[in-house]
Fold this sequence. Notes:
Pfam families: Phage_cap_E. By secondary structure, this protein is of the alpha+beta class.
Amino acid sequence: xxxxxxxxxxxxxxxxxxxxxxxxxxxxxxxxxxxxxxxxxxxxxxxxxxxxxxxxxxxxxxxxxxxxxxxxxxxxxxxxxxxxxxxxxxxxxxxxxxxxxxxxxxxxxxxxxxxxxxxxxxxxxxxxxxxxxxxxxxxxxxxxxxxxxxxxxxxxxxxxxxxxxxxxxxxxxxxxxxxxxxxxxxxxxxxxxxxxxxxxxxxxxxxxxxxxxxxxxxxxxxxxxxxxxxxxxxxxxxxxxxxxxxxxxxxxxxxxxxxxxxxxxxxxxxxxxxxxxxxxxxxxxxxxxxxxxxxxxxxxxxxxxxxxxxxxxxxxxxxxxxxxxxxxxxxxxxxxxxxxxxxxxxxxx
Length: 349
């Protein structure tokens, strides 16, 4: 006879989530920091490895080659943060499932099970949110700060102060009459290329920051001069302007999430920040081995474990009294940032 544990388990939840999430549009950070799996919870990466190449030293024949020092390269090592939450099936839902199973009534049972699977799916989505928050914090300031339920993580990726510039006075982009955003952007692009050999090809900002550029008088005048007529400013027109003028693709990123404390919505990427990035991957989003996954690998527990999204562990186990299923979602996750030296951040208002 089938039991509630046959219907609701880690494997079924993992399959359900994977199928329902297959058509979702990935977060921007998932594209820039692709997911990778690693064992354990220590993350190491090489910072500054994409700087300018150094010319070989001249040498003589029949002389042993000198050993070159590794210039401007440092090893970074840190412990990745751990995320875990759980949920139980409510007693009312459990009783309805048991009665529906006894009556073999799928019309009653399926909606209840789908709701339970959706609730578990929301926990899995929470890991996606945590990962995107960390990636966007890196792109907006070079640091990660996480605090919840009395646990706090603070990671400083040692971005140089020269990579972050705050505009002041009439240079602020919120002053749409006097500011000169194109000049500010071009300066940072040139500096990044001079120092690292990588010229930024894309930029990230929010709708509010993009609005400053849409209203900027110097940009409008430049566009009118180029075309010999007044321009009706739209998103598409401004996007094309930056492509033509600076060979820069600007991504307006306004995705939001709900805060765990009060349920208020918040943007992943902050207003009044304009971040310039080079082409290609900026790093990786590494997923470590959770205690639940370690149990799966060693068969040390009777719990059922399924892995989704590279490294998110979905665990279910039976509770004998009252008869119930506890679902736990956990992840150990942290982005690396190998391309950090080629990024430039402007605080514009």
